[in-house]
């Protein structure tokens, strides 16, 4: 006889799919991971366990209805967070609750980290209600409590954007060209005599462009707070967007950038 389940993550995902009305074969296909695919017999065993849960627990794994947020114990302010994070459709009530709780506990969490932590919390809750193991909640707490360098406290976190950037200065009356764009960070500042644009470097035509001053070779560091360090030894620009600060530094390459940041004690994720 095979094992009753292959992984807590697979069983957790299967529970969500079951509550949403997905059939046995489809559940098996959607939770399969290469050779670690549960059999239909195993999925059937899981479903029998799911059906033994209370209706109150099962309802938490139903998809949220945005106009009923307050009935799930979520404030209306949570709708903005949910809209930002729901990349693959609306989440379950249980998952939406964890998104909100974690964002309140540590507002500076990057979205990808928050999503991963919420996934872990959902799996842990499913382990508890199904009786399939003892979750280690201390791992989640440690992520909330520690900064990205592994130290206690609320130190500022930094993320190095993958693109290189350029600073472009246009006459104030110009219509901005189509090559200003991209999916990354863009800053446009207009004064009485010029328009300054910080944008991705790659889409900009090579060489000099008439009436446009272009300074290339900037790296962009995002700070997930309203604080940033003093960085000497190179030119730098700072742009605040309200919830984050973007620090642009001139460097020859990433190795040089690391040397510059090494003088500040900053480590960053790439």
Summarize the structure in short.
With 270 residues, the protein is of the alpha+beta class. 36% of the residues lie in helices and 17% in strands. Strands 2-3-1-4-6-5 form a 6-stranded antiparallel sheet, with no helix packed on it.
SSE diagram, text form:
Elements: H1 8-19, H2 24-31, H3 40-51, H4 55-59, H5 78-85, H6 93-105, H7 111-130, H8 137-145, E1 158-171, E2 187-190, E3 194-200, E4 213-223, E5 236-240, E6 245-250, H9 254-262
Antiparallel strand pairs: 1-3, 1-4, 2-3, 4-6, 5-6
Helix pairs in contact: 1-2, 1-3, 1-7, 2-3, 5-6, 6-7
Structure overview:
The chain is of the alpha+beta class. It has three domains: 1-52; 56-145, no CATH class; 158-262, VC0802-like. Helix content is 36%, strand content 17%. It contains nine helices and six strands; from the N terminus they run H-H-H-H-H-H-H-H-E-E-E-E-E-E-H. It has a six-stranded antiparallel β-sheet with strand order 2-3-1-4-6-5, with no helix packed on it. It is elongated. The model has no long low-confidence stretch (mean pLDDT 83).
């Amino acid at each position: 006889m095979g094992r009753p389940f292959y992984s807590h993550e697979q069983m957790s995902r299967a529970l969500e799919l079951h509550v949403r009305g997905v059939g046995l074969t489809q559940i098996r296909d959607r939770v399969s991971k290469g050779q670690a695919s549960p059999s239909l017999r195993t999925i059937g065993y899981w479903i029998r366990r799911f059906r033994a849960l209370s209706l109150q627990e099962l309802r938490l794994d139903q998809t949220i209805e945005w106009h009923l947020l307050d009935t799930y114990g979520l404030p209306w302010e949570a709708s903005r967070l949910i809209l930002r994070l729901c990349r693959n459709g609306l989440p379950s009530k249980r998952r939406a609750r964890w998104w909100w709780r974690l964002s309140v506990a540590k507002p500076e969490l990057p979205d990808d980290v928050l999503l991963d932590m919420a996934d872990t919390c959902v799996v842990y809750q499913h382990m508890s209600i199904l009786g399939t193991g003892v979750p280690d909640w201390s791992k989640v707490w440690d992520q909330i409590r520690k900064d990205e360098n592994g130290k206690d406290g609320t130190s500022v976190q930094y993320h190095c954007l993958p693109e290189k950037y350029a600073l472009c200065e246009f006459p104030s009356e110009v219509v901005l060209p189509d090559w200003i764009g991209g999916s990354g960070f863009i800053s446009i500042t207009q004064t009485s005599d010029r328009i300054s644009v910080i944008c991705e470097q790659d889409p900009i035509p090579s060489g000099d462009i008439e009436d446009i001053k272009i300074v290339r070779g900037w790296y962009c560091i995002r700070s997930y707070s309203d604080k940033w360090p003093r960085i000497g030894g190179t030119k730098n620009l700072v742009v605040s967007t309200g919830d984050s600060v973007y620090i642009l530094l001139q460097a020859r390459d990433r190795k040089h950038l690391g040397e510059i940041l090494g003088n500040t004690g900053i480590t960053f994720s790439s």
